[in-house]
Amino acid sequence: MRTVYVNGAYVPEDEAKISVFDRGFLFADGVYEVTSVLDGKLIDFAGHAARLKRSLSELEMESPVSEDDLLEIHRHLVRVNEIDEGLVYLQVTRGAADRDFAYPAEARPSLVLFTQAKPGLADAPAAKKGMRVISIPDRRWGRRDIKTVQLLYPSMGKMMARAAGADDAWMVEEGAVTEGTSNNAYIVKGNTIVTRHLGEEILHGITRAAVLRMAAEAQMKVEERSFTIAEAQDADEAFVTSASTFVMPVVEIDGEPVGAGAPGPVAARLREIYLDESRKKAV
Ligand code: PDD
């Protein structure tokens, strides 16, 4: 049985408790982070901690613990649960209070972390096969730059993809791709990597920031701008990035093959560079 962290205590998962009045439960009033683990170490912890701080501040929530303590909690859980490859999920909610739409002054933030073992995460067969995606309208709220736990529409999107025999969905707003249900979306044309510019319309992926930096260091050209599904279908390659998939090729969009309909060299190279560099910097 796993050990999880709940508000200051390490407990067996079946003893962990959160109040029925917790605003995460009642209002989706909470934010989260997913940090991957390779070789028993955390990938880009500093990036995730910085984004958490920003999400909290946008919602006028206090961090329940310091960044040093947060790192220690992550490390402790990875250690006691013997995670070699997998991820750490962290959630901060505004806490428990009588139900009221306004933020209750008496609520104290609640902090939960747990691990998920994912043996073979770095060597995922999907990276060699590539993913098939469908496009769906983006019906999420307007502050997607805050990593809130209101994930119902992305969850519906995954189900729409599954019903269509695909692996995931890319969301489209005003004719342009915003992002995948739980990842950032990219296309490659010639020597140029294109991914949507940052703004309130997408999550500012920690993997995205690292991959764009590494692409530039490898002399690849990067354009941060929106693109359409038609442009993506006409691209040489497509891929997504996230903490749980790293760099993952996309080989089909709405039934149309992208490029040769197989994972391309740019995505493969970026995946390799990302994994190598991240392992070296892991903490
Ligand atoms: N999802 N866009 C969305 C909508 C996401 O949910 C995620 C991450 C990303 C990629 O961000 P990062 O590179 O920081 O993981 C982009 C996580 C992995 C999840 O919900 O499981």
Automatic annotation (TrEMBL):
- MF terms in GO: D-alanine-2-oxoglutarate aminotransferase activity
**One Pfam family for this entry, by name?**
Aminotran_4
What pathway is this protein a component of? Answer: Amino-acid biosynthesis; L-valine biosynthesis; L-valine from pyruvate: step 4/4; Amino-acid biosynthesis; L-isoleucine biosynthesis; L-isoleucine from 2-oxobutanoate: step 4/4; Amino-acid biosynthesis; L-leucine biosynthesis; L-leucine from 3-methyl-2-oxobutanoate: step 4/4
- What SUPFAM superfamilies does the record point to? D-aminoacid aminotransferase-like PLP-dependent enzymes
The prosthetic group or cofactor this protein requires is:
pyridoxal 5'-phosphate
Q: Does the keyword Calcium apply?
A: no
Q: Which keywords has UniProt assigned to this entry?
A: Amino-acid biosynthesis, Aminotransferase, Branched-chain amino acid biosynthesis, Pyridoxal phosphate, Transferase
| Reactions listed under catalytic activity | L-leucine + 2-oxoglutarate = 4-methyl-2-oxopentanoate + L-glutamate; L-valine + 2-oxoglutarate = 3-methyl-2-oxobutanoate + L-glutamate; L-isoleucine + 2-oxoglutarate = (S)-3-methyl-2-oxopentanoate + L-glutamate
Q: What class of enzyme is it?
A: transferase
Tagged with keyword Amino-acid biosynthesis? yes
- What EC numbers are recorded for this enzyme? 2.6.1.42
Q: Which PANTHER family match?
A: AMINO-ACID AMINOTRANSFERASE (PTHR42743), AMINODEOXYCHORISMATE LYASE (PTHR42743:SF11)
* Known function: Acts on leucine, isoleucine and valine.
Which family does the entry's similarity section mention? Belongs to the class-IV pyridoxal-phosphate-dependent aminotransferase family.
**Per its record, how is this protein called by name?**
Probable branched-chain-amino-acid aminotransferase
Q: Which organism is it from?
A: Jannaschia ovalis
